[in-house]
Amino acid sequence: MPGAIYAEGLVKTFGDVRALDGVDLDVPEGTVLGLLGPNGAGKTTAVRVLTTLLRPDSGKAVVAGIDVLKNPNEVRRSIGLSGQFAAVDEYLTGRENLQMVGQLYQMSGRDAKTRATELLERFNLSEAGDRPAKTYSGGMRRRLDLAAALVVSPPVMFMDEPTTGLDPRNRQQLWGIIQELVAGGTTLLLTTQYLEEADQLAHDICVVDHGKVIARGTSDQLKSRTGGERVEVVVHERDQLTVATEVLRGFGKGEVSLDDHTRRITVPVTGGAKLLAEVIRELDSRGVEIDDIGLRRPTLDDVFISLTGHAAEGEEEPGRPEEAAK
Amino acid sequence: MSTAAGTATRTAAPRARGGIGQSVRDSLVVAKRNLIRMLRIPEMIIFGLIQPIMFVVLFSYVFGGSISVGGDVSSDLYREFLMAGIFAQTVTFATAGAGAGIADDMHKGLIDRFRSLPMARGAVLTGRTLADLVQTALTIVVLALVALLVGWRIHEGILKMLAGFALLLFLGYAFSWIGALIGLSVRTPEAATSGGLIWLFPLTFISNAFVPSDNMPTLLRHIAEWNPFSATVQACRELFGNLPQGYPVADAWPMQHPVLASLLWSVVIIAVFRTLAVRKYRSATV
């Protein structure tokens, strides 16, 4: 049986750009899928197709058991969307925004009003509820946007980069809300550029690049694919690098990599903490003074770099494919 | 099903009622939103008023003495003649606002939000154009009062005057669908504002709004006589009793039957541009 979000062979091109190039997804009910990828990888396009905003050139999509292409309005009843831009009307108050969305979800005026009050309370916006959203901080706007997506407690939620641009405190707070939501059984598809976010929130992760899914699995599976643990040493004096490298080569299970500038030596190992203690003893007996030493497991950053050949953040932005196509 | 802290059980939205009832209700919800915005940005209404008031004053005092209507050079006559033109220009220029507002909603992601909701498909645009209609009506009332101050009078009674205003508002409503289409077709609110204004200059000036069209070169005269804008202006002049004695009424059908022509034009414009705008809305991407 297909999951709460299911896609098969989704293709969408904008001019020459293949924004989606045969994407398959299957998200079991009540789980979180993290869609991870650099800017322009096709994450947003995938969300737009699944939330009925964009028709794919080909492929199949089913959300909450309803065919997205055949029955978009039925799908809209069962989803909540929280976008990259906090899509609230800044001249309306928080309460007015939520009431409007409720009524457009076809709730009665009275139900929409009650629900707005509940949500303002839950998202810690009661005090600001009667001020125009213009006066809200970035974090408050995101919370309001998320509240708007939850007006009907939809069984399936889509969040497109929910914490982009938020400071760490607000990000933590939003993560808390999302975790609570998922604990309540909501199925969630989340796109993010923050690997830590996917690590924290997602049960399964799909890495997309150039419109294709290039890897999928749990965070642990992806990490172990990239390789095991490594010992990393930073020596105090540059002229001790040679000795230290020799020592590490003796313990290592692969090639030693050396960064002359930062005086950092890294080598893949097996044996964990016990081995680390041996390395320290050996370095000490050879008179090598160390600034830092540690056992490092691969992060999702390493996974990302090894899969795509570049980092997830901080690179030149190719822009959204929708825009590039115009 | 379990519940998230403080939330009701996960449920889909109530089933849409569908049909006209839902369209009307959704449109009114969106119209209310746009009206609240207007009240919170009063500058918009104020600027919307200043321009037509300036036009009334400038045209009647600067040009008033030198523009001849019906062989008689009199600024009093011209002032009466002019008002219907200014009114009509005001309702059409207001449509640039609809386009800019919709482009702004697209830009900010609100249109995406609306399109992901199970609402009637034309409601976002209908709500917007209805709210604009309310604002335009308000502008017309203020403008009529200013016009009375500078010497505009009606000679055919209140009912005909109201009929004239109704035609003006209907034309403005029709044109706001063109504004909506422009707003959906451009990438930024700024482009919508200028794109929404450019076509209005030839439309309003190649017409009978400010000068009688019978002195224009043949081609322009034909355009002016068949211009939907001219039909409404002519209809209002008739309904207000603002046509000077001996004013030459052109033989073109819309000038002979201006009220009917004005109504027909507005209906046709709505039918065409509402269809195009709603189609564009459904496939809108930023």
Can you offer a commentary on this structure?
The complex is a heterodimer of chains A (326) and B (286). The C terminus of chain A is likely disordered. Chain A is 37% helix and 25% strand. Chain A contains 12 helices and 14 strands. Chain A has a 6-stranded mixed beta sheet with strand order 6-7-8-3-9-10, sandwiched between helices. The longest helix of chain A has 16 residues. By secondary structure, chain A is an alpha/beta fold. In chain A, helix 3 packs across helix 4 and helix 8 packs across helix 11. The two termini of chain A are 39 Å apart. By secondary structure, chain B is an all-alpha fold. Chain B has one domain. Chain B contains 13 helices and no strands. The longest helix of chain B is centred in the middle third of the chain and has 28 residues. Chain B is elongated, with a radius of gyration of 21 Å. The N terminus of chain B is likely disordered. Chains A and B meet through helix 2, helix 3, helix 4 and helix 6 of A and helix 1 and helix 5 of B.
Write a brief structural summary.
By secondary structure, chain A is an alpha/beta fold. Chain A is built from twelve helices and 14 strands.
Whole-angstrom Rg of chain A: 24 Å
Overall radius of gyration of chain B = 21 Å
Number of helices of chain B: 13
* Helix content bin of chain A: 25-40%
Structural class of chain A: alpha/beta
SSE class of chain B = mainly alpha
| Strand order of the biggest β-sheet of chain A | 6-7-8-3-9-10
Largest interface: A-B, 51 and 44 residues
Helix content of chain B: over 70%
Overall average residue pLDDT of chain B:
87
What pattern of helices and strands is seen along the backbone of chain A?
A: EEEHEEHEHHHEHEHEEHEHEEHEHH
**How many domains make up the coordinates of chain B?**
1
Percent of residues in β-strands of chain A? 25-35%
Largest sheet of chain B: none
What spatial form of chain B do the alpha-carbon principal axes imply? elongated
Oligomer: heterodimer
Question: Using DSSP, what is the number of strands of chain A?
Answer: 14
> How many strands, what sense, and barrel or not for the largest sheet of chain A?
6 strands, mixed
How many strands of chain B? Answer: 0
- What is the H/E string of chain B? HHHHHHHHHHHHH
